[in-house]
Design goal:
Elements: H1 2-30, H2 36-51, H3 60-76, H4 80-88, H5 90-114, H6 119-126, H7 131-140, H8 146-168, H9 179-187, H10 199-216, H11 222-236, H12 246-263, H13 272-300, H14 305-312, H15 317-326, H16 331-347, H17 349-368
Helix pairs in contact: 1-2, 2-12, 3-10, 3-11, 3-12, 4-16, 5-6, 5-13, 6-8, 7-8, 8-13, 9-15, 10-11, 13-14, 14-15, 14-16, 15-16
Length: 371
Amino acid sequence: MVISKISFKQPIKLIVALITALLGGYLFQLLHIPIPWLLGPMISVLLGSNVFKDRFAWPTPIRNAGLIIVGYTIGLSMTATALHEMAIQLPSMLLMTLLLMLLCVWLAYMISKLSPINFKTALLGSIPGGLTQMVILAEETKGINLTIVTVLQVIRLMMIVICVPLLVFSPIMGNQHATQTLIQSVTASTASWGELTPNIFIFAIISISCALLGHNVKFPTAFLLGPAFSTAIIQLFGLHGPALPNSIINAAQIMIGIQVGLMLKPAQLNHKFQILSLSIGSSLVLLLGSFGLSFIFMHLHAISKSTALLSLAPGGMDQMGIIAHEINANLSVVVGYQLFRTFFIFFAVPPLLRLLFTYSANKKMNRKSPS
């Protein structure tokens, strides 16, 4: 009797979560809020699940399916042109990325000193590796406050997505394009359903297989990185990966956003005003740091101010690429730098963080143990 009751209630909770997410995404889209189909479902499900207790459910496999889709789209960006640009400017890319990472470490250290947030949580909240990636990494790491990481990442993303276009289209950069053109480009469809077949079946089978294999061998964020890495390799061998229609990408963001919204626990977030203030302040410092690094970048290579800033801005590669296209910046440089930082954070940061956290934990244990 209990089993049938649970099996009946579970689909109802799933449907409630999905309807709530769709309403939130639609509202965020009407308000022109960045990445509405990720943030909208996340916020609406967060509010709904905290007001109506035990009314929402979302299976992890559905979230993982969304991650596979996002990973595939990331892998599509690893084109031969982007790889060529990365190879030419590899030393500069590594230098700029390391300087930006050092700034993030310093910001995390300051946040941990000025607030009750521990350094591990502050660090994962400060690294500009993308909201989805950092939240998933935080979920897999012990001793991390997932709610704080998400708050720090969401505020950083909002600040970057709003401030960078305003800065790039300002007289400081010398770009006079109307922002309406940018909005139209963001909302324009990138692909059609008819272009998916037949190659999408090959990429789907390989992406899912690599995601499951990576998960079994404990690869970090396997459902995201497995498809990204496999897609990039297949494309380098000459097989074209079709771009996904916006509806599929939006669906993937909904799958992820619902799960993140259910994982957030606002009741566990103490010192809310302090954390909010530090989040906004650290995001501004990160943006100013990127702006400063762009001047160093300009002296290393003969590029425009806008190209330098968009290459180093700690925002999403897709948003920065769209802006670069609108102002006729060097798109291959922008995508190359953003892609290099993305993959550096994907592949280098997780093992480095695990080594750092393990070393820190062992050091604490040695201090506590009797001499």
